[in-house]
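hey so u asked for the seq, here:
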Amino acid sequence: MSTQSDPQQDFAASKPDQRVPASRWLVPGLVAVALVALALVTAGRGGGTDDEPAAAPQSSARSTTPTDDGTTGRVDESVSRRKAGDPYALGRVDAPVVLVEFADYRCPYCVKFATDTKPELIRRYVDSGTLRIEWRDYPMFGEESEMAALAARAAGRQGKFWPYHELAFAEAPRQGRASFPRERLVEIAKRVGVADLKRFEADLADPALAEEIRADMVEGRRLGVSGTPAFVLNGRPMVGARPLEEFVAAIERLKNTAK
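ran it, structure tokens below
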């Protein structure tokens, strides 16, 4: 079996305006989805590793072969959930453009997108009703990645998902991987105003939250996501912490197409 390249490394080595081919991550693998499901069966169990995870078979439903454009190859428009009241989404349910983000709190490229690009996309497009952003947890780098994902969702049960999410990324390093021991997870919860810390800590061990994360991982593997951050923009792939201008160009094109 050939070794699939790492989209993070490809992006890091490329020029700022160089696109990473969509085919680098939208390819079927040979490992069953059942193996992915074992990664997050219970809260706090280590499932991701520093190695690139193997991809699961890609669903053929509502999918077509992507192009190497990186922004125009159609994947599967059903990836966007458009669920009313979704605590892990920003923007109108009926926004003409939906950006689905697969990311890991310990990924420095995800940090770059979260701190440099996402705030501007929110200001320009989410606030105006043009864009909806839907978060998907894709913890690739071990137990601390999984625990950070669980902690943000536990905070979300008390209405603090996005403040927790933003602070976790804001204080993460741009190089290397952030560290999220349990005491730091609790400290972030305190700082963003999670009211019931005992409930927060109890929720870290709730299998229901672990199942939510597992579902995101299975969805990403179905699409062939093998690195973070990875995006699906109205069914089209984008890989890596792209420059703001590329997201703007794609959103402008798609919002006009949707009219």
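The radius of gyration is 17 Å. Confidence is low (pLDDT under 50) at residues 1-72.
lmk if thats what u needed
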